[in-house]
Amino acid sequence: MASLNKTSSGKMRTQNKCGHAAYKMDDKTKLVTMALTTMLGEPKFYGDNTDELIRLAMKLCHDGEGEFVAKLAVWARTKGNMRSVSHALISVVSYNCSGEPFIRPAARAIASMRGDDGTEILATYKALYGDKVRWPHAIQRGVRDALEGSSPFSLAKYQSRNRDMKLRDTLRITHPAASRDDTRDAMGKVVDGTLPMPKGWETELSERGNTKEVWDELIREDRLGTFAKLRNLRNMMLAGADVEPVLDTLEDRNTILKSRILPFRFFAAYKELARYGLDTTRVTRALDAAMGHACGNVDALPGRTAVLIDTSGSMGAILSAKSSVQCSDVAAVLGAMVARVSDDAWVCGFDFTAKRIRMTGMSVLNDARTVPLCCGGTDMGAGFELLMKSDFDADRIIVLSDNEVNGGWYGNNHRTIQSCLERYRSKVGHDVWCHAIDLQGYGTQQFIGPKVNVIAGWSESVLRFIGMAESGVGSIVSEIESMRI
After folding, report:
1. In the 8-state DSSP scheme, what is residue 151?
2. Are 106 and 78 in contact (CB under 8 A)?
């Protein structure tokens, strides 16, 4: 059974950030939900939980679960596409589990993802444990292993010259011994500060200006990565550049699947273009195709699926101070993706009331656009009440929320929404699965017991755990526990 908790006894009772009824999470589940929904040091609607995440990771290390924390660090980076939190988790493990054999391969796996991941690991460790730090051998060796396979171009690109911790510092700390002469030569030049920075698209724009001619040249010579193309699509169009090759890239399935771009990024790009009146049918089709491709690794959901999407005010919280992407964007896109892969789906949004959202299941982008954002409270019970009044006999219920239930459903704030789930199960006459997708990681849950599956994250990969749980294969926690590093 893939449920995370087996009892709804009083000892599991707690309060959420709003002071209303909720259930506790076990430590592993709580850390997973935090790790997959947290950008370190970034504000959330109910406060930054970075310190709480670090303390919980330390506690698990002291409880003998350091290997789980290390595996979560790798999973967050390689599957969840989360960077900063993976650096923090591997740092905590290295400090609190010195000498354990699982640290080096975990550090190597994370540091191998991008040319500056190793430097960021060391920078995070130093930030957590002080300037006069004694570097753990496992981190030194893991980062060194990753650096030894670097290309000269990667070394040049990720020198981090404008950061406190630079690649030069990383090389001096880890002492990699590259097997290739060109890599060894590039490392020496990084250390003495003579390796030229590659002339990337940012440099071209800085030196020559944000003009049509510059963008056309960058596009024609294919000098932009997929994410850079997506992120700069507005600037290209405003400059009058020919973006047809960029749109072709977005429509290429293999390119999108390899890009590791989180699906909500395409929706955010569309919203930004729409603000400037640049949402032409050609551009919209390309972005919709990209979002459809991102569903490529999501298994179909047989039967009937009810989707409850939190549209309350707290879902308007941005994911990062440097971004306009809101938690509601993530919920809208994941909800639309569920509708896309379901045999049949019934969708509603809830805040202080609930309203049916009529998705077609044909276009992820257009369906995501139908999800409103309200300024009201979080009355999850209103969503269940609307589902109760419908004739929809669901095989599963998927709830997308930050789980900060604070609405006065039925005028009772002293009970969790578990009772609403039980009422619906009683009405339809079978034990409907409930998959609660946590989008903010505040550390509490509303559902408990058999056929309850708590998931967390912003990537489409979280949707895999719906079918896995229902088939008895496991949960997100069990997959992390069983992974090899």
Report:
1. -
2. no
Question: Closest by alpha carbon to 263, among 232, 234, 298, 239?
Answer: 298
Query: From first to last of its 485 residues, what are the pLDDT tens digits of the chain?
Result: 233 333 444 456 655 545 556 666 789 988 988 888 776 655 544 345 688 889 999 999 999 999 999 999 999 999 888 889 999 999 999 999 999 999 999 999 999 999 999 999 999 999 999 877 789 999 999 999 999 999 999 999 999 998 999 999 999 999 999 888 999 999 999 999 999 988 888 888 888 999 999 999 999 999 999 999 999 999 999 999 999 999 999 999 999 988 888 888 999 999 999 999 999 999 999 999 999 998 877 788 999 999 999 999 888 877 776 677 888 999 999 999 999 999 999 999 999 899 999 999 999 999 999 998 877 788 899 999 999 999 899 999 999 998 777 655 444 555 678 889 999 999 999 999 999 998 877 767 788 888 988 888 887 778 878 887 888 766 788 889 999 98
CA separation, residue 277 to residues 220, 303, 308 (Å) = 25, 39, 31
d(CA 251, CA 243): 13
The tokens describing 461, both together, are: 């990969």
DSSP conformational letter for 318: B
242 assigned to some structural domain: yes
The whole domain housing 305 covers 298-482
Residue with tokens 């949004």: 349
For the chain, the residue count is: 485
Separation CA 255–CA 459 (nearest Å): 17
We report the CATH number of the domain holding residue 408 as 3.40.50.410
Cα dist. 403→148, 250, 286, 310, 438 in Å?
44, 33, 33, 9, 7
Predicted TM-score of the model (pTM): 0.79
* Together in a domain, 277 and 345: no
Q: Determine the longest span between alpha carbons in the chain, in angstroms.
A: 72
Q: How far apart are CA 124 and CA 128, in angstroms?
A: 6
Are 316 and 465 in a shared domain? yes
Angle at 51 between CA 45 and CA 56, to 5 degrees: 110
Q: Which residues pair with 400 in a beta bridge?
A: 309, 437
Q: Look at the chain and report how many structural domains it folds into.
A: 3
Q: Identify whether residues 242 and 183 lie together within a single domain.
A: no
The H-assigned helical ranges of 134-180 are 137-148, 152-157, 167-174
Distances (CA, A) of 343 to 244, 252, 361: 34, 25, 9
Q: What does the block give as tokens for 241?
A: 């550049």
User: In 3D, which of 324, 329, 440 has the Cα closest to residue 47?
Assistant: 440
